[in-house]
Amino acid sequence: MTTERTALVIGATGGIGGEMARTLAARGWTVRGLHRDPAAARQRRSDIAIDWVQGDAMNAEDVRKAAIGAELIFHGANPPGYRNWAGLALPMLENTIAAAKVNGARVVFPGTVYNFGPETFPRVGEDAPQNPRTRKGRIRVAMEARLEQAAAGGTPVLILRAGDFFGPSVGNSWFGQGIVKPGRPVRALTYPGRRDVGHAWAYLPDLAETFVRLIERSDDLPRFARFHFGGHYFARGVEIAEAVRKVCGRPDLPIRGFPWPVVYVAAPFVETMREVLEMRYLWQETLELDNRRLVAFLGAEPHTPLDQALIATLEGLGCLDEAHRNTGAAVARGA
């Protein structure tokens, strides 16, 4: 006899939300997605078995109805383009917490490194002080504090923190918008940070697999559980761009600096640019996430070899022409 398990994924059209939906569905879960336009969402995620429900994450009743019968709610909602975090992020989370409480569900939440200031660098553990230097960081700290409060009130919470995302459906990310240009073969690369400082990246399929392995051991988790995901860490941050060169078979591809001066000029007039500028310190200081607690709990962290992960990412972003695709396949085989 099998027991049907249901998860509500909020943000299933996004990068990590989509990978969570895919991984849960592959494990036999019934996955629901909440979206204002289910038809458009269904078309966008046609390769994943998701039961789409019409609704808005800003509407508490919509979230409550979508969560009926769910034993977990994955909260992957993010204001698009860094815009209006103060007005959207916390209210959406409150609706998720309320729905989880009513339905007896666990809240599962992807954490970020925005919570930390440079005084905690270079290697950051789960219990490091959270003294953010940015508005977005302060909002993220408030979100995790609210989740901890919800856990104290009886709602189980799982947080898994990771670095910058890359993956086949990464979309709006530093990799997909900064290092390469989606939808066209790689002709040049951009690296946003200081090339000699360390930077942490998370391959989304590995991150989703880690979430699900933790969920599968939910009976062993404390009511408020927080882990750090090591992912792919580069002691020289620019190594990720150099690795893209390798899988493309183009060691001569130029690696350019990010146009930070343009961002400074535009910041007073464009909200997205102001938010991007606030995050610059994360590209100027070494930051590595300490995953020892996670490894001790799971035994190992899921980890796709870098070449394979980059090839899948570039393929998904439409950045490989036929010549690059053949080169990438050879690299993946170790030829």
TrEMBL record:
Cellular-component GO terms for this entry: cytoplasm
Signal sequence segment: none
Domain NAD-dependent epimerase/dehydratase, residue spans: 7-221
Species in which this protein is naturally found: Kaistia hirudinis
One Pfam family this sequence matches: Epimerase
One function term, GO molecular function aspect: aldehyde dehydrogenase (NAD+) activity
Protein's name in the database: Nucleoside-diphosphate-sugar epimerase
InterPro entries xrefs: Epimerase_deHydtase, NAD(P)-bd_dom_sf, NAD(P)-dependent_oxidoreduct
Source superkingdom: Bacteria
